[in-house]
Amino acid sequence: MAGRCHVVVLNWNGRDSIRPCLRSVLHQTYAAYRVVVVDNASTDGSRDIVRDEFPEVTLVPLPENLHFARGTNAGLREALRDPECAFIATLNNDTRVDPDWLAELVRMAGDRVGMVASKMVFIDRPNVLNSTGVSIGPDGSAMDRGWNSVDEGQFDEALDVFGPSAGAALYRKDVLDSVGLFDEDFFAYYEDLDLAWRTRFAGWEARFAPQAIVHHKYSASYGSANPMKTYLCERNRVWNLVQNYPWRYVSMGIPWNLVRVVAGPLPWNGSKLEQGQLTRGRFGKTTAAMARARLDAYAGLPRALAKRREREATTRVDVHTIGRWIRTYRVSMKDAVLA
Length: 339
Prior knowledge:
Blueprint: E1 4-11, H1 18-25, E2 33-39, H2 46-53, E3 58-61, H3 67-80, E4 85-92, E5 95-97, H4 101-108, E6 113-122, E7 125-131, E8 134-136, E9 142-144, E10 168-172, H5 173-179, H6 191-201, E11 205-216, H7 227-244, H8 247-252, H9 254-263, E12 268-269, E13 272-273, H10 280-299, H11 301-314, H12 319-328, H13 333-338
Parallel strand pairs: 1-2, 1-4, 2-3, 6-11
Antiparallel strand pairs: 4-10, 5-11, 6-7, 6-10, 8-9, 12-13
Helix pairs in contact: 6-7, 7-10, 7-11
């Protein structure tokens, strides 16, 4: 037996999704696991569903909505209290997982593999990929590997990836003990990418588990064209660039940052314009969100630089290795601008 795994599910107003999610999680073939649900102060009765209908689940009720990074960290801390915990999986509440999901994730977590990515497909389009791991861009951006492409088996090799999407990921307890949890300054989005960087700085690798299947309802919490999501992604992208990229790559990313000033306000979803059109109202809201994100990102640079110095002092890899990551796990230049 590889060791006990805790599955941490973050819930916020998931009345329509939490039942099927937990039912699928509680029917895993993996022998030793426990389930923790962190409830972000739901107001739709979904917290009561977890408490009343799933007594085998540990419920962590929060007094307010702490959003993804802080909320998930509450579940991670609960799991880490278990002295027999060896792995922790993070999972969105708007998912359903196949019975072998957890067993396949743990199977891939061998030797120096500290984190494992699931094969995520869209719940309403099960033949279309949502994520097979996370790729990185030249400007601090990220994109789901295989995003929105028809699943024809082209990603079905258990390859190394840069990191997993935290919507359905596995982490070794040893990793979290050594590098810490999600950066709570990120609030939501890019916190999993930042954790992947820190994990790699510590000498760990990431692997994709092609048989660990997760069906995901994309952007159920924020909505795919929500100005708040635009704001968080842009602000956190800048912080990710400054905190984790070698300076030579930060400077190389400047032209792509300038391109984003023009391309950023467009309501892109992956690499396609949502609904095939641009509305004036959405354009204005998105432009304002981008502008506010940049201002807040720059205001937070002193803290980002302090984190950068801490990581530079403890990293086990050199700049050439980091450069190889950027080349190997790269997003295309086009997709980086549109991500």
